[in-house]
Amino acid sequence: MTDPTLSPTTPANGRRSEVSGSVKLEGSSSPKSASSNQQQQQAEKKAAGSIIALYGVRESFVRRMMRMFEHWPEKQQAVALVAGELSDDAVEQKTLAMQQWLLGGELPETIMVIFGGDEKRRLLWILSDQRRVDMLERLLTGVPLDGKFTIQYEVLHGNNDTTVYDKIFSTAKAIAGDRKCQVGLLKKEKHVGKMAKGFTKYCSSTETMAHDCIGNATATVSSWMVVKDAEEVENMRRSAVFSTLLMKQVMVRDVESVIENDTKKTHEAICDTVESAAENKDMLARWAKKFPYLGEDKAVDVIYTLIQSGKEFKLRPDVQPNQEALDFSCIVASVGAKYREYSTNITRTLIVDPTKHQRAYYNLCLSTMDTIIKSINGKESLTCQEVYNAAVEHIKAKASTVEFLHDALSQFQTDCGYSIGLEFRDGHMLLNAKNHKHITPGMCLNLSVGFAGDKMVNEKKKPYAVWVCDSAYISTGPDGKMKVELLTSGMSSGKDEVMYYLDTDQPGENEDVVKSERKESSKKEKKSKKEKKQHDKTPDRSKKEKRRREDAKSSSRRHKHKKDDLIIESRLRTRRNRATAEDEEERKRLMDQQYELRARKVEECRARLLRSGEDAGDADADATAKNKCLDTCKSYSTPDDIPHDIRTTKLTVDAKHDTLLVPINGTLVPFHIRTIKNISKPNDEGGKYTSIRINFHAPGTSFVQQDMFPESNRSKQTLVYLKELNYRAEDGRNLQAVFRGLKELQKRQRTRELEANTMKDIKEQPSLKLIKDRSRPVLRDLNVKPQLGSTGRNRAVGTLEAHQNGFRFTSSRAEHVDIIYRNIAHAIFQPCENDQTVLLHFNLKDPILVGGKKKTYDIQFYTETRSAGDDLGTRRRAGYDPDEIMDEQREREMITKLNKLFREFVRQVEEQVWSQYAPNLEFDMPYRELGFTGTPNKAHVDIFPCRDCIVALTDWPAYVLSLRNIDIVYFERVSFNLRNFDMTFIFKDYTQTPARISIIPTESLDQIKQWLGELGIVWYQGPTNMNWTNIMKEINKNKQAFIDNGAWEGWFGESVEEGSDDGMDEGDEEYTESEDSDVESEAGGSEYKGGGSDSDSGSSFLVDEDSDSDSEFSLASDESEGLSWDELEKKAANEDRKRRRSPESSEKKRPASKKKRR
């Protein structure tokens, strides 16, 4: 847990001897560590490995050093950063933060002295022992200094280093010249170790050159690190994600579980749960599916966790969680975490059954936070004092007008935030009434609003506190002024998120339920009294009515004490049925993001379509059309090649030249087999003659591909096309032979075309370079899809091996398949989770032949975790069946084992092979939490997004759609009254047919939109299906007009407003068929704005709804087709009357009708 000796300005975990996620340039120099030679060598190897890891900070090292020189204080000539040995007694937060900022790691027992008082003499002196000096010299050798400053090294011995220290102060005095010399130190820090204590003793002595030359550099060092660069801001964002996940998915859920089950759990135990979750590899792996950086080794760590409830509240991060059980009245929860040593903080106050006093203070807390944010937004610069004063003025205004808040200012904390980053709390950037330092863009602040004190007692005489903290980044808005961006907004501080209701006397969703029940019970009681006076009830019915009244009276009491129905379920149900302010804010953010992406997409389309080579796809189409054109068919090169030994009155098949020789006017005319459409042998009625009919391809006939006849040939009126020939003979033997010969030729021609089409995209693959070392990655006992050889029940089982330039799968029948690395477009590893297989799938750039004749773009290697067979036993299983339990246990063990084997194979391939031979390749994994169902081909399957593609791999044929070449996404059939919608992907190559996934549940729409927005993909939506064949044909016909009209924004930018249907409540009843027709007609008329003036120009781009998509919608459309306005109005009135006669309406009107009859 936390360190009890912390100062108020120190994070709760203090300084750890081993800080996770940071790099330490230390061997075993601590006196507490072992001193054997073996351990010393291991420590040196570890430090050397850390040096290699630090090579990536060279560029930022020079950039940050120059920032220090550019913001150098006028009074100081040098600043000394002293780090001693690693110890719990040391207090060196700012020094270690500076080392992390400059070099990306900690350097114990090292003194860094920076000279910046003179632009011509900018120096960095590094003082340490011989081993560390050698390491740092190797690290910083080759850093591109470009003469900006120089680096010098001095070796310290720890006993008497006065000579080295004299050099430092001599240099500082030389730079100062006639001015007073001053060397800045971090005076409040405490050091452990001979070197650090020797330097501080030298500086404090009156007999050394340091006498009267020491100043305080704390404020200077803070000013260097307070403004974050882009790399630091990204680290802060990632740290905020980790903090929010710990708060929302671990701490709050644990607290809710305790409240839900009415159990006892101590504050310390809850904090231990959070810290254990942060070290849980399975949980981190699950989070890493959506946030991959959380899976980095030793990148994240917990700084502190704190839960406070009951009688005592201290709004500081250095407070220790106590052993008291969680109190359900008011709970203050805080989490501080870091990513790569960059810290963020989040605090939320959870209130159970809030009273008016508590609601008033919590509303004040939220409004004060808004005031702080608004005071910064839109300003070019302001001081920390101005921010604090704005909060104080707001609290004063509320205290004078709102009940219960008269003492609010006295309960307010002394500051409302501070700078956060590599230091959890920078004491020189406090937002309080005394700090005149300026807030500037690039800073990261921990905004904090808290109320606690002796006046914070609710109506039930229970003490409580209110505290909300969020980490924020001060960015620069479009107008060049400051803008606050909350990094920890992933968990809202809104009242709907943090307030729980157990007692229905408090306002909430359940209050309305109780009031309605009480109202109904009172009505029944009055009615029973009236009926009793009239003596209309029998004694038996009176008894029943009496029991009913008693049940009604006690219904509120039962509802009040039934916790299981009132805690989390009611609050979550409210969130599902009513759009909260957070949902609206998220929807607005998504739309703002889309508007920005769409504007960029217009420019991208213009640049892509107008640059040279945009019609490269047309050349391929021309080549394909040329191959199909009949002008390329040649039976014979010259007339002399026609055989002369054939009778000129006889039909002859020349199989050698794929030609039919036809006698016409005594001359043999050759027809290539490709010119023949079909051949038939009609039955002659008399039976005397045998007939044969030959049909030829000709322009204008049905089912004829127009690319067989070029436009230039069709325009020539001199050409004559032969459509069919009929021959009849008494001796039918020759005609039957011709019929069989032509059929055989056609069969051979189709086979050749099929083979040519199969081999068209097949490219020659390089030969596999084998790794003969036995340590190569190998995965055994795999099945493969598609199957090798002939299909059958015996599937090929084999071994997959990773070699230098590709994989080789070898089956038990000695068949093998090679997959070259450079031909892999996507490599996907899908572990077994709620399915039957664990698999590796490879999507290829160019197809390969599997089994010698199957062309495929996808190949999959998998192992089934359980048998697909069913138990046909007739005996009935009991509720507790040991055999079944053992089977399930064995199945779980098998799944765990296979997942581990596949995951280890993937790791070995990436680290041992791909890192050396294919550095651009990496295995992708499906994000199962983002999965949805849909129909990409013919089957309805589970579809999962990956980093670079979306996949459905369980069923075969597998579906893999790469996202790299996606231009936009269009959602079709999006309407509040439909249960599903379609999603169409339009490729950047407009000659490609768009890909569609249909019948996706509407519940997945918002999630898919958010995912596409994170990928930067533009999406549109509309209420109808689009005819993409006509749309793409229209775009390809005139790309210049498409660009001039605004690209896709011109087509879909004015369609039905995105999100307009999302706000509709599922329980709305004011929906009529006429309204639906109006919406459909308006949406359909605005789908296409770039056509001609023809009023029907847009109709060719819309597709009618499928009848099975939504029966109610389709019937309404069919019935209203062709009706006049008067008929439609009359029909709507009839429907209204039917609704008024519905059972619910009649129930409500019955009592009134009885009263009238009396």
Automatic annotation (TrEMBL):
Q: Where is the composition biased (Polar residues)?
A: 1-12
Q: Do you know which Gene3D superfamilies this protein is assigned to?
A: 2.30.29.150, Creatinase/methionine aminopeptidase superfamily, Creatinase/prolidase N-terminal domain, FACT complex subunit Spt16p/Cdc68p, Pleckstrin-homology domain (PH domain)/Phosphotyrosine-binding domain (PTB)
A single GO BP term for this record reads: transcription elongation by RNA polymerase II
- Principal location listed in the UniProt entry: nucleus
Subcellular location field = Nucleus; Chromosome
Where is the signal peptide, in residue numbers? none
Q: Where is this region: Disordered?
A: 1-43, 504-588, 1054-1158
Q: Where is the Histone chaperone RTT106/FACT complex subunit SPT16-like middle domain?
A: 932-1022
Biased composition, class Acidic residues, residue ranges: 1055-1081
- Respond yes or no to whether keyword DNA damage is given for this record: yes
Give the compositionally biased regions (Low complexity). Answer: 28-42
Write the record's keywords in alphabetical order, separated by commas.
Chromosome, Coiled coil, DNA damage, DNA repair, DNA replication, Nucleus, Transcription, Transcription regulation
Per UniProt, residues of the FACT complex subunit SPT16 N-terminal lobe domain are: 58-209
Biased-composition ranges for Basic and acidic residues? 512-523, 533-554, 563-572, 1127-1150
What are the recorded GO MF terms, alphabetically? nucleosome binding
Q: Which InterPro entries match?
A: Creatin/AminoP/Spt16_N, Creatinase/aminopeptidase-like, FACT-SPT16_Nlobe, Fact-SPT16_PH, FACT_SPT16_C, FACT_SPT16_M, Pept_M24, PH-like_dom_sf
Task: Tell me the SMART domains matching this sequence.
Answer: FACT-Spt16_Nlob (SM01285), Rtt106 (SM01287), SPT16 (SM01286)
Give Gene Ontology CC terms: FACT complex
- Domain FACT complex subunit SPT16 middle residue range list: 651-809
Does the keyword section mention DNA damage?
yes
How does it associate, per the subunit comment? Component of the FACT complex.
Family designation:
Belongs to the peptidase M24 family. SPT16 subfamily.
Q: What does this protein do?
A: Component of the FACT complex, a general chromatin factor that acts to reorganize nucleosomes. The FACT complex is involved in multiple processes that require DNA as a template such as mRNA elongation, DNA replication and DNA repair. During transcription elongation the FACT complex acts as a histone chaperone that both destabilizes and restores nucleosomal structure.
Please report the name of this protein according to its UniProt entry.
Answer: FACT complex subunit
Q: Which organism is it from?
A: Perkinsus olseni
Q: Which gene is this protein's source?
A: SUPT16H
